[in-house]
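Render this sequence as a predicted structure.
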Amino acid sequence: MTTRHWCTGLAVATVLAGAALSGTAAPQKDKIHEVRVQDGLTIKDKLAVGDDRDREAKDCYCKVYLVRMHADKTYVIRMNAANENMIDAVLRVEDKDGKELAFNDDAPGENTLNSRIDFKCPRDGVYRVIATSLADNQTGDFTLLIKVTGK
């Protein structure tokens, strides 16, 4: 059985028009991520002591990213832990009101503890992508990757 987690607070970043070719962004509070069609979005981050905690699983750290997405496009969203022994990655996508639209604990068919969501965006807007862990108090580096794959 998989436990679902809920995050409070925000840790967000933006990719500006002149950003690096890789689409890599540094975390900045209250900014909106733009997913570049040509190379996607890559954010290197970490779950750390002192980060916000999940709303339900109070002993799990989380990061929340605001990401602008477009209707009828499919986004592949990945959370890859630098060390799977330190983080059992969990991803969620929520709408602006906090309603869960997608959830993943272990990437389907990949025999890994990393997480992957294939998300078909229902409407243009800013969505919350939540990166957290399955087990309590897990910390460590991870990479959040978001690529547009449809339309």
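Summary. The two ends are 34 Å apart (CA to CA). The longest strand covers residues 125-133.
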